[in-house]
Amino acid sequence: MNAANADLWTLVLGIFTLLIVSSTIGYLLQRRLPAGQSNAAIENLNARIKAWWIMAILIGLAFLAGRIGVLLLFGFCSFAALREFITLTDTKRADHWALAAAFFVVLPLQYWLLWERQYGIFSIFIPVYAFLLMPIISVLRGDTERFLIRIAEVQWALMICVFCASHVPALLTLTIPGYEGRNVLLIAFLVIIVQLSDVLQYVWGKLFGRTKIAPSLSPSKTVEGFVGGVFSATLIGAALWWITPFTPLQAGVMAFVITMMGFFGGLVMSAIKRDRGVKDWGHLIEGHGGLIDRLDSVVFSAPIFFHIVRYWWSIT
């Protein structure tokens, strides 16, 4: 077993050990409740733990399948997230061809470019070519009612659900001296830190939260939860430096950056949900709402993380 595989298996063992401990705690908390009584916080915690098991298993299987497995997993995530996003937009019949192009042309081409390692066109395909293509396709139908709003919604959906999300598997394309064959650990670092930050902000907020940050956007987010969660996730990121090409200090800085981006990404996506008048993006994952509800922090963090690593540590 080479060093990369050894580190990956160590990480996997640690994650599943944490999940087992979390499941045990959730079970014991549920058992301590009086018969017939329920507790919303405990039920929410147990639902989240079940969802984490599913996500951990899926990501683990993708890692075992290698590069093709990771691309297929995130390609599916982009498709499902795009579907959730589009269901909340005000598209019309005139936009159907543009939507078909988004799902069956733009999305697969974006991931094919990743497979071919064509970074140059990958980085501009959606924000340049797809953004110009969408309004052209729609305008040919001749329907100008709310045209700008309709097109902007489709473009934003592509940016979030496909462009940003595809930067997670894009980490596999980077060439980092002395880190060859270990790029999958960068994906693990990104996902673990961002997801842990969300969880820790929730826990710190429940324990000590008093001051609301943005009550009109996300009533559960507090200053105390934010500070405690980001600080804890930053320390965990520094402790996980051994799975990255970074020093402990650099890993801590990277963790801080991606947790901050994840937090603000969550606020942005919450604002969109409030604008649409919904609580969750969907009901795909019990206890977590839709897929976008789980990806919102990751998709905002991924492009920033990718480009910092690319231009600071990699040689292309």
Explain the overall architecture.
The protein has 316 residues and is mainly α. It has one domain (3-313). The protein is built from 10 helices and no strands. Helix 8 runs antiparallel to helix 9 (248-276). The chain is globular and about 60 Å long. The model has no long low-confidence stretch (mean pLDDT 86).
Helix and strand pattern: HHHHHHHHHH
The chain-level mean pLDDT equals 86
Structural class: mainly alpha
Q: Give the low-pLDDT segments.
A: none
Evaluate the radius of gyration: 20 Å
* Inertia-based shape: globular
Task: Work out the number of β strands.
Answer: 0
Largest sheet: none
Helix content: over 70%
The helix tally amounts to 10
N- and C-termini, Cα separation: 28 Å
Strand residues, percent: under 5%
The figure for the number of domains is: 1
